[in-house]
């Protein structure tokens, strides 16, 4: 008990219940996401028309397909977890199994939360896009996050599963399907954005030479400002990722209870090394 991770201050029976509750909560979040997308679809048909309606329908349809793929993924993952627990692996009860494999259980809970959170964020981003208050780029980022969290869930489930398990094969197939549907969301979002921008093509035919020159200079200034801002955001993203990896590494080290050895002090080249001491 003393060697167990300090962050896991949970009783055995509570840990098993947490896994089941988290998977059920993820399923509910996905079901709610599907309902919200259907509501957005009917709202878009009532409030938009033409190119905008076509774009919204294509994006929302791809989001619906992605949600269905995620729902099947969670169901298959739940079946695989039951199979893993029923195989025993030296544990008498479900609660004892989850407690005995607490590190794995924590990873499973974290992965499930990530999937549910990604689905919720995707729906909220789609809602803002349909209402003309959001950005298309948000949908693209959410799709990438869902693909990443799906890979995390598959990896967490794969650790304890038998290689010959049919449920594991189904889970991997569901993961590929989720990635394909997420790619479809990205593709439909990009094509829709381009279609909307083409519709709003600017007409310069009525401008005078002086007005055209002024617009050209102002546009050049905006281009330089955006390039500078883009470079700054890339640097910020790199620093955020470094900090993320550093914190993740520190957390893993604390969980393992291992401390990295301190680097040996540098010695002068001409100094004689100290004699070995008895242990």
UniProtKB/TrEMBL annotation:
Which key words are in the record?
Coiled coil, Cytoplasm
Please state where this protein is localized.
Cytoplasm
User: What residues does the I/LWEQ domain cover?
Assistant: 7-248
Coiled-coil ranges per UniProt: 207-243
Residue numbers spanned by region Disordered: 252-279
One GO MF annotation is: clathrin light chain binding
Q: What is this protein's name?
A: HIP1R protein
Source organism per entry reads Oceanodroma tethys (Wedge-rumped storm-petrel)
């Amino acid at each position: 008990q003393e060697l167990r991770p300090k962050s896991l201050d949970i009783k055995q029976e509570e840990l098993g219940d947490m896994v089941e509750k988290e998977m059920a909560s993820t399923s509910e979040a996905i079901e709610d996401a599907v309902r919200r997308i259907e509501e957005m679809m009917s709202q878009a048909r009532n409030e938009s028309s033409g190119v905008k309606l076509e774009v919204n329908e294509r994006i929302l349809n791809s989001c619906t397909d992605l949600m269905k793929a995620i729902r099947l993924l969670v169901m298959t993952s739940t079946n695989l977890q039951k199979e893993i627990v029923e195989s025993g692996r030296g544990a008498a009860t479900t609660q004892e199994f989850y407690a005995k494999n607490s590190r794995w259980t924590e990873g499973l809970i974290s992965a499930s939360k990530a999937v549910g959170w990604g689905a919720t964020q995707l729906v909220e981003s789609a809602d803002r896009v349909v209402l003309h208050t959001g950005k298309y780029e948000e949908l693209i980022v959410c799709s990438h996050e869902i693909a990443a969290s799906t890979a995390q869930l598959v990896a967490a489930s794969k650790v304890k599963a038998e290689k010959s398990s049919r449920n594991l094969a189904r889970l991997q197939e569901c993961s590929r399907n989720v990635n394909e549907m997420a790619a479809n969301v990205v593709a439909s979002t990009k094509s829709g954005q381009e279609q909307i921008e083409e519709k709003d093509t600017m007409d310069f035919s009525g401008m005078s030479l002086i007005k055209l020159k002024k617009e050209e200079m102002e546009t050049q200034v905006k281009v330089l400002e955006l390039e500078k801002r883009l470079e700054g955001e890339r640097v910020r993203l790199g620093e955020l990722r470094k900090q993320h990896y550093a914190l993740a590494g520190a957390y893993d080290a604390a969980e393992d209870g291992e401390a990295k050895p301190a680097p040996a002090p540098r010695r002068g080249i001409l100094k004689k090394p100290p004699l070995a001491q008895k242990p």
